[in-house]
Design goal:
- With 137 residues, the protein is α/β, with parallel strands linked by helices.
- It is 47% helix and 20% strand.
- The chain starts with a helix and ends with a helix.
- The model has no long low-confidence stretch (mean pLDDT 95).
Length: 137
């Protein structure tokens, strides 16, 4: 089931304004994550922890000096096939949204799950991302 586009559009736009490329098809995901370098793939969501913690935490993390080469996003409940394909690339982790995966040279090297985000705050999520950036970027 897809959410109505008008509900998701402001949440999509928030990430695009931060510099994220939207991945709306499985082909988009495959092309993005199989490149050389580092790619952050954020599974966006309409839930409160995405809006109140994850997206603000992303904005904080992006002020760090060490960043992935590319920022990408797919939207759970909207980009169904793209999200399903993205999650298949880190199938050892149960699907959750929001969710962030860091790829390096085409291989998933880090995944941050909803249970690590929910109930925290943007600074904690940002620190999880920055730690991953420091290790892999």
């Amino acid at each position: 089931m897809r959410y109505p586009e008008h509900i998701a559009e402001p949440m999509r736009a928030e990430l695009v304004q931060m510099g994220f490329d939207e991945l709306r098809t499985p082909e988009d995901v495959k092309a993005a994550v199989t490149t050389t370098g580092t790619v952050l793939l954020f599974v966006n969501s309409v839930c409160g922890c995405a809006g109140g913690i994850a997206r603000p935490g992303l904005a904080l993390a992006l002020s760090h000096e060490k960043l992935p080469d590319r920022l990408t996003t797919t939207f759970a409940g909207m980009d169904l096939e793209a999200t399903e394909y993205a999650r298949s690339l880190f199938a050892d982790y149960p699907p959750s949204s929001p969710q962030a995966a860091l790829f390096k040279d085409g291989k998933c090297v880090e995944v941050i799950q909803r249970h690590q985000i929910e109930g925290t705050n943007p600074n904690i999520f940002a620190s999880l991302l920055v730690d991953a950036f420091e290790r892999h970027c």
